[in-house]
Design a protein that fits this description.
The protein is of the alpha+beta class and 683 residues long. It is built from 9 helices and 38 strands. The chain has 3 domains: 302 residues, Neuraminidase, CATH 2.120.10; 97 residues, no CATH class; 262 residues, Rossmann fold (3-Layer(aba) Sandwich), CATH 3.40.50. The strands form 8 sheets. The protein has an 8-stranded mixed beta sheet, with helices on both faces. Strands 5, 6, 7, 8 and 9 form a 5-stranded antiparallel beta sheet that branches. The chain has a 5-stranded antiparallel beta sheet with strand order 14-15-16-17-21, with no helix packed on it. A hairpin with a 5-residue loop joins strand 2 and strand 3. Helix 3 packs across helix 4. The chain is globular. The termini are far apart.
Length: 683
């Protein structure tokens, strides 16, 4: 989500019924909501394959309003300008309460056609305050297979090609421009680190011609994850750091920071003999997470209001909270740790915050509501009746789900290996039209999230509700390694992927079976991506589950480690499993493909055929082995789908196929009318 300074709000919507395209949407100052992205175009970037940060909205030098976005088809940057409603002065709002009649120009390319299709990709762009320049992350895919990440700057009118302003590091993210347009900050890091392991925060002077100078390292390193840098209205640099074990907020107290090493690389690798970094001042000190693991670009969990106050989102006890950091009581206390004034809202998950004068725009959800675009009023202080009041701008689902059919999550903390505990949300079966026979316990699905450094959140998840409304119990496991519970919990997975996640998933099921919440003869496990790997690991190395579903899951760790995936995750396994080939034996021990003989229950595999993160070869390796061994399985592949299903017809088919599969395996007939398919080797 983003906001333009004249109270216009922007966000992106995924449209499964429009062939899975992404659309930039705008609400103007008069309250009119309209698409910016034309029909037939999808605004999506493929940088890091996961994307995010695919557009930027800004005021151009003439005072008009513009949007620059990445086109999914060719990955070039395109620009659209807002046309005035009556041909006169540029103004997007009509009379009070009347919708705007303004329209947008057709997209025109700003960046050159790349040497090969989709070989130059752009993400996380920001415009200078005067709208003349755009700074962006660029990912170049060279003819020899090398992938180069860098920061570039280009004129917003497309009059010149992008110019590289920072290079030499493996990854870049979050270029942010100060309010006066004279300073730039960004994040960078190198293999084998992931951004939640260790990043560096750099700053530089930004000249009017787009050149940078005086690059300085401000904070961070291999053992500190710096995320979400942001300039305050007064030009102070803020960021989130997990140096205490939690992603809390800090500000740079003085402008001094050690200089770059002078090795010829912009934003290059710091030299060993430089002075120590200044100690940033903590603005918030709380055992909670004020940032999210950046699997995608553009995440923003705090925003400044016009008067300098801060609206923040933090994750604690498995849900998100919104709060205000009011202004310090005196100039001398500018850098004092500030107290949170939590806001009473119905939302349990917040994915983005954007400033709107004295209010903010958020994308949020709750236990009973899907994603919504919302305007939130934080109020002026304690006791203000407006504090926490919300206006829903757009609902992700125009037709709300009847609350009577919604299963409410029960947060559970359950015992696991080593005398530790792990976290999950339990969803009991819920459907007011049906009652189970006396003494009949429901089947249980253990849901494993992807990442694996990710987490299931506390929002209304229609995927889960699909199962609970059909008589299943569901446990949504945030195993050791998940985000939202601090760095120590996150690092439980280091060197232990395939063990900690799998054992925690099994122990969540055992905990619920012991409570009497599930039928021990009908316990399944399902997951996508990294969750698919955990699913396959559980089915091939632990004889506990009676069925499983892997959605684009990883089957062969060795193939993944030797170039079978994209650059962003190409060395991720070094921390999750160990260095390769030094620990090749461990890779083989943890690869489901090497334990096919141990599978003792049916499995269904669902796969997109254009998946560059977990290529279809991974599923096909598993299919071939299952077929050779004569084990029961089903395999459904989807044309045109990448990592995750985005087209409505494929989402429906995958979900119904999985239900049909469980019905055949566990001996029941679903009430839904489902197109049948063969489960090979199932008697």
């Amino acid at each position: 989500m983003a906001a333009e300074r004249r109270q216009n709000l922007y966000w992106v919507e995924l449209r499964p019924t429009e062939d899975g395209r992404y659309v930039v949407v705008r609400r103007d100052a008069a309250g009119a909501v309209a698409d910016v992205t034309p029909a037939g175009i999808s605004a999506r970037t493929l940088v890091h394959e996961y994307g995010g940060g695919m557009y930027v909205a800004f005021r151009d030098p003439r005072g008009g309003e513009s949007v620059v976005f990445s086109d999914q088809a060719d990955q070039r940057l395109y620009r659209q300008d807002l046309l005035p409603a009556d041909g006169g002065a540029r103004d997007d709002a009509g009379a009070a309460g009347e919708p705007s009649r303004a329209s947008w120009t057709a997209p025109r390319p700003l960046t050159p056609e790349p040497p090969a299709p989709r070989s130059h990709r752009y993400a996380d762009g920001r415009a200078t305050p005067d709208g003349r320049l755009i700074v962006s992350v660029r990912e170049r895919h060279e003819a020899d297979g090398e992938v180069v990440n860098e920061l570039v700057i280009l004129p917003s009118d497309g009059s010149a090609e992008p110019n590289v302003i920072a290079s030499g590091r493996d990854f870049y993210a979050a270029p942010r421009i100060s309010p006066d347009g004279r300073r730039l900050t960004w994040l960078c890091w190198d293999h084998p680190l992931m951004p939640w392991d260790g990043t560096e925060l750099w700053t530089a002077e930004l000249a009017g011609d787009g050149s940078v100078s005086g690059e300085r390292l401000v904070a961070g390193g291999p053992d500190e994850s710096i995320l979400q840098p942001l300039w305050s209205p007064g030009g102070e640099l803020w960021f989130a750091s997990d140096r205490t074990g939690w992603w809390n907020l800090y500000a740079v107290v003085d402008g001094k920071a050690r200089a770059a090493s002078g090795d010829g690389e912009h934003g290059g690798r710091p030299g060993a003999a430089q002075p120590d970094l200044p100690e940033p001042c903590p603005l918030v000190s709380h055992s909670a997470e004020f940032a999210q693991a950046p699997w995608v670009f553009g995440l923003q969990d705090y925003a400044f209001l016009d008067d300098g106050r801060l609206v923040v989102c933090f994750s604690e006890d498995g849900r998100d909270h919104l709060a205000v950091l009011d202004r310090a009581p005196s100039a001398a206390a500018t850098h004092a740790v500030r107290r949170l004034r939590e806001l009473d809202t119905p939302y349990t998950v917040v994915s983005s915050i954007a400033p709107l004068g004295d209010r903010v725009g958020i994308v949020a959800a709750s236990h009973t509501e899907s994603w919504q675009a919302v305007v939130l009023d934080p109020g002026t202080g304690p006791g203000d009746p407006r504090a926490g009041s919300t206006e829903v701008v757009r609902r992700g689902r125009p037709v709300p789900v009847d609350p009577a059919y919604v299963s409410r999550p029960e947060p559970i903390v359950f015992p696991t290996e080593g005398g530790l505990t792990a976290h999950a949300n339990f969803f009991p079966p819920t459907n007011p039209e049906f009652v189970a026979p006396e003494g009949d316990l429901p089947p249980l699905l253990v849901v494993v999230h992807g990442g694996p450094t990710s987490a299931h959140d506390a929002r209304l998840d229609l995927d889960i509700q699909y199962w609970t409304s059909r008589g299943f119990a569901v446990v949504d496991v945030n195993y050791g390694g998940s985000t939202g519970y601090g760095r120590e919990y996150r690092e439980r997975l280091k060197g232990q992927w395939g063990i900690v996640d799998t054992v925690d998933s099994i122990n969540a099921a055992k905990y619920l079976i012991a409570r009497g919440d599930a039928d021990p003869a009908r316990v399944g496990i399902r997951g996508g991506s990294a969750g698919g790997y955990t699913t396959l690991s559980a089915l091939t190395r632990f004889g506990f589950f009676t069925a499983g579903a892997s959605l684009f899951g990883l089957a062969d760790l060795e193939t993944f480690a030797t170039g079978g995936t994209h650059k962003f995750e190409s060395r991720y396994l070094e921390s999750l499993v160990g260095p390769y080939p030094e620990r090749r034996a461990v890779y083989r021990e943890r690869s489901p493909i090497d334990h096919i003989d141990a599978v003792s229950c049916p499995v269904i595999l669902l796969q997109g055929l254009e998946d560059a993160i977990v290529p279809p070869e991974q599923a096909e390796i598993m299919v071939g082995a299952l077929r050779r061994k004569g084990l029961p399985f089903a395999y459904l592949a989807f044309e045109g789908e990448q990592h995750g299903f985005r087209k409505a017809e494929n989402i429906i088919r995958a979900q119904e196929a999985e239900l049909f599969f469980y019905g055949r395996v566990w001996g029941f007939t679903p009430a839904d009318e489902i197109e049948p398919f063969e489960i090979e080797n199932l008697a």
